[in-house]
Design a protein that fits this description.
Helices cover 43% and strands 23% of the residues. It is built from eight helices and seven strands; from the N terminus they run αααβαβαβαβαβαββ. Helix 3 runs parallel beside helix 4 and helix 7 packs parallel to helix 8. The N and C termini lie far apart (32 Å).
């Protein structure tokens, strides 16, 4: 998988993996799963909540770029989105990624009503997971995929979200046994 990327991207991703604990990055296994989902589904528009240092954004950006698509990513901490922007440029995905700085809830509330996504990945403040879902849902296309990381490692903090998406009539949801646990839901109507 990573072998398909250019040498600079491979090296950057390996370096970022060494800082996983400092920047709360997703695992490589989860990154590869998300990458394959986007590529295989042919998705062309995505949103990520929680950019951090750009590790997951590089994977998502590479997937969207291969499909001719784009990624919007949200990060509150200026230092982190500056690091992420440099990593996106280094890995040749900056042209398909728009970083939206600010508090995720406020950024999501300000999204244009007609902005639609076919893929969403949430890896930010776990207690706000339900708010992110409620704000992204109107923007997610039918047939799109909504994912949220850390649903096993932070189960108590995301339980309200899990209960809501399990009961939501527009979604089919499961929790994948990837490191930290990944909530994976398809919007069916």
């Amino acid at each position: 998988m990573i072998e398909d990327f250019d040498e600079v991207t491979q090296k950057t991703l390996c370096e970022l993996e060494k800082t996983q604990r400092d920047f709360w990055n997703i695992s490589r296994q989860t990154a590869e799963f998300l990458y394959n989902t986007i590529v295989n589904e042919g998705f062309v528009s995505g949103i990520e909540v929680g950019t951090s240092n750009g590790y997951s954004g590089i994977w998502l950006g590479k997937a969207f770029k291969s499909n001719g698509g784009v990624l919007n990513t949200i990060e509150f901490y200026e230092k982190r989105y500056s690091i992420a922007q440099a990593n996106f440029e280094k890995c040749n995905v900056a042209d398909v990624i728009t970083i939206r700085p600010g508090e995720a809830i406020e950024v999501l509330k300000a999204l244009p009503e007609d902005l639609k996504f076919d893929f969403a990945f949430v890896d930010a403040n776990k207690r706000e997971s339900i708010d992110y879902f409620n704000l992204i849902n109107p923007h997610l296309k039918v047939g799109g995929i909504y994912t949220c990381d850390n649903v096993l490692s932070h189960k108590e903090k995301v339980q309200t979200y899990i209960d809501a998406i399990n009961a939501h009539p527009e979604y089919r949801h499961t929790i994948l046994d990837l490191p930290a646990g990944l909530s994976y839901a398809r919007k069916i109507k």
